[in-house]
Design goal:
With about 90 residues, this protein is mainly α. It contains 2 helices and no strands. Helix 1 packs antiparallel against helix 2 (about 50-85). The N and C termini lie close together (about 10 Å).
Length: about 90
């Protein structure tokens, strides 16, 4: 197992993780900003009010992006197993 081999697997793992988590993080960010703006306009200063919309937004984005997420995970798993299988040769 060479250093380049480990770096390649680690790089792909990090990129896959970031791309999988991205849609949910963006949904939570946008929802938090919108709720924050709405709270500022309405002068409501309740900190716990943002949690339910964020949870709903993340759940909806997870449902919408689930086929794509599974495809990315399958592609990475196939890549990793193929690399590991050719490691001994």
């Amino acid at each position: 197992m060479t250093q380049e081999f480990c770096q390649q697997i680690a790089r792909e793992a990090v990129l896959t993780t970031l791309s999988i988590a991205g849609p949910m993080l963006v949904a939570a960010l946008v929802t938090g900003l919108l709720v924050g703006i709405l709270q500022a306009v309405a002068q409501v200063h309740e900190m716990t009010l943002t949690f339910i919309p964020k949870i709903v937004a993340v759940a909806v984005s997870l449902i919408i992006f689930m086929p794509w997420i599974l495809s990315r995970m399958t592609t990475f798993s196939t890549f990793a197993f193929e690399k590991i299988a050719t490691m001994g040769h």
